[in-house]
Amino acid sequence: QVQLVESGGGLVQTGGSLRLSCAASGSISRVDVMGWYRQAPGEQREVVAEVTSSGRITYADSVKGRFTISRDNAKNMVRLQMNSLKPEDTAVYYCNADIVVYSVGMTYWGKGTLVTVSS
User: Fold this and answer.
1) What pLDDT digit, counting tens, does each position of 29-44 carry?
2) Could you give the CA distance from residue 30 to residue 36 in angstroms, rounded to a whole number?
């Protein structure tokens, strides 16, 4: 059984910062891509940032220069440092990971953590 557990959401004012963390646990053989998605009310879920096991990183254009994704392969953790937050960053943020359990690869999701940016 694999679980992704997020932490670090909350309420912050415009221009503030938050850091999200996500830890994968369970019978994990290998973790490939890890990332963060978000879903605002009435909107589709969208990718925010992703990082491969080798460290290749991609960001959504809307967060480039403000958000930083990092990964700890030894701990199967991924973090998202969010700076200069804007009201449009308000959303539920989901951790996402492509994980291999024994020889079976699947995509896993966390339950989500709410980030609210007040204007």
Assistant:
1) 999 999 999 999 999 9
2) 18
